[in-house]
Design goal:
This protein is of the alpha/beta class. It is built from 5 helices and 8 strands.
Length: 153
């Protein structure tokens, strides 16, 4: 009998551990914000883009796209949306993007992205800049700006 009581106490403890793990790992995923979307000036020549092409644009290795000069807009590297965009959309860490920008800038082969302060400024600047490309979270309803979808790999 004593062995049965111990078994049930351990079973109940294991159940509590599983419940705690579910709350810690599953609940935040259910409440997680949607990933940022890529936005571009209305003159951007394509409606969709491949992930490797997107990484080339945001790492500043690709300065023109189908004959149009690109201007890349980003949020500060400490901004949560920048971190989410880097990791979830581009598949790189923010410091890796910064290293790529530094290589382009300090080698003299190009320029770095334009850093903006907020989502509103991102929408405004991309909408005013032909060839402008950036990212935002949430709905995109701004004149001159459209969402660019990601093609499958």
């Amino acid at each position: 009998m004593a062995g049965d009581d111990r078994f049930f106490r351990e079973l109940r403890a294991a159940g509590l551990v599983c419940l705690l793990l579910a709350v810690l790992f599953v609940a935040p995923a259910a409440n997680a914000a949607p990933p940022p979307v890529v936005i571009a000036h209305e003159s951007f020549p394509d409606n969709s883009i491949t992930p490797p092409m997107l990484r080339a644009i945001f790492s500043m290795r690709l300065q023109t796209f189908q004959g149009e000069r690109l201007t890349v807009f980003v949020l500060d590297s400490r901004h949560p949306d920048h971190e989410a965009f880097s990791k979830e959309v581009l598949g790189v860490f923010p410091y890796q993007l910064q290293n790529a920008w530094n290589r382009v800038i300090y080698s003299g082969t190009g320029r770095g992205p334009v850093t903006v302060e907020s989502r509103q400024e991102m929408l405004r600047r991309v909408g005013q800049t032909p060839g402008g490309v950036g990212y935002v979270t949430g709905p995109v309803d701004h004149p001159g700006v459209r969402v660019v979808s990601m093609e499958a790999r």
